[in-house]
Amino acid sequence: MSTVEFAGADSRSTAQPPARGRKGSRRSATRTFFTPGTIIASVLLGVTIIWALFPGLFTGHDPVDGGDTAALLAPSAEHWFGTDQIGRDVYSRVVHGASRSLLAALIAVGVGLIVGSAIGLIAGSRGGWVGEVLMRIVDVLLSIPALLLSLTIVIVLGFGIVNVAIAVGITAIAQFARLSRSQAVTIMQADYVQAAYGSGGTYWSVLLRHVVPNAVSAVLALAVLQVGSAILQISTLGFLGYGAPAPTPEWGLIIAEGRNFVATAWWLTVLPGLIVMAVVVSTHRLGTALRKAAE
Amino acid sequence: MSPTFRYILSRLGQAVLVLFLAFTLAALLLMILPGDGVLARFANPALGLSADQVADIRDSYGADAPWFIQYWQSLVGFLQGDFGYSVNSGAAVSTLIAAALPSTAVLALCGFVAAIVLAVIVTVLASYGKPPWLANVIDSAPALFVSVPVFWLGIVIIQVLSFQLGWVNVVDPGAVEALILPTLTLAIPLSAPLAQVLIRAVADVRTESFVHVSRAKGASEGWLLVNAVIRNATLPALTIAGLLFGELVAGAVVTETVFGRNGLGSLTAQAVANRDNPVLLAIVVIATIGFVLVNLIVDLLYPLIDPRLRHRGRVGKSARKHLATSTAAPAGTSGAVGASSSAHGSVAPRTSTTQGPGTQSAEESSS
């Protein structure tokens, strides 16, 4: 879904720092980075990552088998998010779902980052017809609305969470390509690049020793922004039923399964949705702060 | 040939090229890569078709032809408005789409209008709201809106407005009543990028010296809002038109699924669930045409709206450069913008950034 593109940046928005950011640049970078907002966001994300790594620390309930627990219990001290239609603990499902959703988001961002940056760096540093052809490919990727592009890829690759992640990653390629291209173009004009060439550097040595290290901070900031968007897109595809199969705890699927009970058991959808939202807002917040710091 | 005419022609050419390449990509993925989708579907023993019948069906879908013939035939077919036949139901894809289009068009239009209204309300409250803490809270609303999973939003809206408050009937609603909740679901995420751009534009313009002068001369806040802000916010708002279109497409798929409405969105979701590649191909191509058209229109509108862009040599490039500065701030909203024309203009030199666009346009409109 293209909510996501919202989080992204392209060359136009990153080639120049926003006028406002300039004023604050006298304060040290760390002080501007650690605002209450980013601290809360970091804590939230940190908790989610620990959920994903060690779900057993946070919940003793089984996410897939409810046992003989009563169905549709309202939230309580025993079951924080209540139980679903077959007695599974919803909080436990969300905690266990974190690993799948975060891993999928990382795969998606990884695909976009690696393929996109490779395209962008080569296009930006080589120019000429190579750059022209590469950026045309990016244009074509951008011209298909993101959700439809990912659906097209899902239909080709088949359903499943990894395929969904790859599909979402392919929709992110264009943004990484544009950003890294603009970075590469700027860097290639710098004096030290001329100096490197002058002292006998080859194209590849300049690319690896100067262009990549200098472009990396901006690209990584975009990657953090993209994690939130990827989580949103992946959960959307999971909700539509193209991701993980049924008993798997995956955030989109958990919400999809709860929707038949909106009238009687609000906690099945509302609480998992709030968690997804909190995680997405946090990555957004951190990504934006990182991008300002990178500039 | 006048420069304007040449600009229009070159933009048209780029749009057609991108459309053609996008069609090729989608056709490659959906028609040619899957190999023999027809065989996979109809050779299923449960259907009880004889080998001859399967051969007939294959023949009717043209599945025996080599891939470049299939590609060529579908390209010609698409140009003539013939999108082939659904693998799932056997109906002509064009019929399916014609049946689904009106409902989605109405929903999209309502959602779009509601999003604009919502964005303007949020902007006014965030910029002029009292007390200030309330304005601050509303100021952060757009960032929240973009982070909401749309499918979840739809469910929560049904839950609150329909089941808790009983305002809208979702079980057996009338035609208009059935539109209210989907419109709201579609409008909320759609309004977010728009509100962000508008809030930013208002903030930019209000700090300009010509606004202080106008205010000192006795202009009311309302007059300033209409005359300065709207004029200066139009261009940045236009740049996210492509982004909004993408949101609208994605929103329609999710909203129609959540609310069980028939339309292009639910047709898309069904096509993917049933692996109905011809239907998905047609939808992808139609949506891409819409997307490219929106971006083309926006690109052609820039010089009309901003006179400065008319007098420069390369209109497209200066438009891009201008936008590069103007969209720098609102959290990188320009992701999908200008999809079809980026190759040339997307990199603005760093040196051009010392002056924000707000300042530029403000100075010019005041002079």
From TrEMBL, chain A:
- So which domain of life are we looking at? Bacteria
ABC transmembrane type-1 domain location: 98-287
Q: Main site of residence?
A: membrane
Keywords of the record: Cell membrane, Membrane, Transmembrane, Transmembrane helix, Transport
Please give one Pfam family short name: BPD_transp_1
Q: Where in the cell is it found?
A: Cell membrane
Q: Which residues form a coiled coil?
A: none
Alphabetical list of SUPFAM superfamilies matching this protein: MetI-like
- For region Disordered, the annotated ranges are 1-28
One biological-process term from Gene Ontology?
transmembrane transport
InterPro entries the record matches: BP-dependent_transpt_permease, MetI-like, MetI-like_sf
Indicate the transmembrane segments per the record.
33-54, 102-124, 144-173, 218-244, 264-282
CDD domains, alphabetized: TM_PBP2
Q: Identify one Gene Ontology CC term for this UniProt entry.
A: plasma membrane
Which protein family is named in the record?
A: Belongs to the binding-protein-dependent transport system permease family.
Recorded protein name is Peptide/nickel transport system permease protein
Which species is this UniProt entry from? Brevibacterium jeotgali
Tell me the classification of the organism that encodes this protein. Answer: Bacteria, Bacillati, Actinomycetota, Actinomycetes, Micrococcales
TrEMBL record, chain B:
Keywords annotated in UniProt? Cell membrane, Membrane, Transmembrane, Transmembrane helix, Transport
Q: Does the keyword Membrane apply?
A: yes
Q: Could you tell me where the Polar residues compositional bias lies?
A: 350-367
Instruction: Respond yes or no to whether keyword Transport is given for this record.
Output: yes
Q: Where is this region: Disordered?
A: 316-367
Q: Which Gene3D superfamilies match?
A: MetI-like
Q: Give GO BP annotations, semicolon-separated.
A: transmembrane transport
Pfam families according to UniProt:
BPD_transp_1, BPD_transp_1_N
Sorted alphabetically, which SUPFAM superfamilies does this protein's record hold?
A: MetI-like
Show the ranges annotated as biased composition (Low complexity).
324-349
TM segment ranges? 12-33, 105-129, 141-167, 179-199, 237-259, 279-302
Q: What is this protein called?
A: Peptide/nickel transport system permease protein
